[in-house]
Amino acid sequence: MRIIQIIDSLEAGGAERVAVNYANGLSSLRIQSYICVTRKEGLLKQNLSSNVGYIFLNKKSTLDLNAFLKLKKYITKNKIDILHAHSTSYFIAVVMKFFNPKLKIVWHDHYGNSEFLSVRPYKLLKLSSFFFNYILSVNPKLADWARLKLSCKNIEYVKNYPILSSSATDNTKLKGKDGKRVVCLANLREQKNHLMLLEAFKTVTQDHPDWSLHCIGKNFEDDYANSVFNKVRDLNLDSNVYFYNSKSDILNILQQCQVGVLVSKSEGLPLSLLEYGLAKLPVIATDVGDCRSLINDSNLGILIEDINKQTISEAITKFITNEDSAQLCANNYMIKINKEYSENAVLDKLKKIYKTIIE
Fold first, then answer.
1. Among 10, 94, 119, 260, which is least packed by CB within 10 angstroms?
2. Span 181-340: which CATH code?
3. Cβ contact 84:106 at 8 Å
4. Which residues form the Glycosyltransferase subfamily 4-like N-terminal domain (predicted)?
5. Looking at domain 2-161+342-358, which of 3.40.140.10, 3.40.50.1220, 3.20.20.150, 3.40.50.2000 is its CATH number?
6. What's the confidence (pLDDT) of residue 18?
7. What's residue 276's pLDDT?
């Protein structure tokens, strides 16, 4: 099999990390593995294995003929069989199938707003799905939606899996006091609910002024990012809350923290929660997407059902004031993630799916 992952960018987002993990993981199994980045390179490029074939299209528009022809030539040259398209990159995969009908398409749905599927636009996706051989969804809710709305019979839920490793470029030093840090791995998007997290953390600092919150994620320099930074100033949290933009040394960062938090309004299966587990952090998350499958027991972490600043601040405070409980949850959660969300289990399932559509 010769498989290419197709992704819009290599910015440090969840779908992008999955694409890189798949490309690297398949190459380690001696499968001919490639990755195509259509629009923008980014931090994750440095995480690619040297065994992974790489092409960057620098696609400028939806109908960029030069990008189409460049990818067509690359696919032909490398005799690629399967196009594994992530998120919105399905369209270019369908175009490639028009050039070569023998190509097989796997579409991977990472849609983060799975709490709001009723308003999801999908006309182009539904039309494109006639050409999909398989659909993979990051949580059961998305798989059910695809069965109801799309025109592909082969649909399956496949778990994400985390990869964290050390490197010589691990140089991020977090601010704040050692042993008193809360981390939030989330790009600055409205669905990630930073504004409410800030309000909750303001309450936390009233009794625990020496604790700090560290937000790691892409700053898109838009109105939402500006509202987040304005909120920090309005709440007088400049000495307690720090932003670092995208970072590649996630393991190094998490090892400097004591609590991992994610208070999103909507999610798929957040890779950040899985990474908290590998780093052995006690976790706090809201009950959205597939978070409940990760934190389905009070001995694994804190799952917030009623999302407001009080419930969030109480959860953070619980782990701050009860180290025994925090350590117990961290240990149990790490064991669960290592057991149920392993690279080997997911790649074995992925290989079987690839083989069914090739045969």
1. 119
2. 3.40.50.2000
3. yes
4. 13-147
5. 3.40.50.2000
6. 96
7. 98
